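ok so I'm stuck.
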Amino acid sequence: MINTLTSLRFIFAMMVFGAHCYVIDNHFDIHFFKEGFVGVSFFFMLSGFIIAYNYQKKFSENKITKRTFWVARIARIYPLHWLTLLIAVALGNYVIASGTIDWCKHFLASLTLTNAYIPKDNYFFSFNSPSWSLCCEQLFYICFPFLIAFTKDYRKLLSTFLICAILSVVGMYFTPMESIKGYWYVNPITRLPDFIAGMLLF
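replied:
not stuck anymore, here's the structure
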């Protein structure tokens, strides 16, 4: 099963790469590479599946605590995130472009991985743009120990997924098109259904 997921990971990674590669986007009209958002949803679902696969039994048998899980997750994402953030700061001219006060606010949001909660592209795409996805993963990790308890009764987990999904669809319908990305595409709360879907597949 894991080998199959590895193969799927490669396919969807290429989809995301193609969607962000301007050479491909500008010179090749390939529909596959224009659907990068599907690949992003896949990776969030895969995260839910893999984490449930690795930790469901440990939580059910009380072999791990919420605190231990959270510390392990933080240690996994923050060091590399901070390193890439510092590299982005060193290589960019963000202070000059945005001003000192805005720079400090944007940097603090990126440093703490809260940038994706602010529906403005100069926040969620500031410095290291892909870090918005880490912001989503951070929320998933916070919620996971509480969500995994629902796996004893999948109806509760399914109900949580359906409620989140329905609210997301309704919310998107009433959101102006120019605001969709900030409120629904990068926002960790509205990405939670992807993660829960992965847990349900497990």
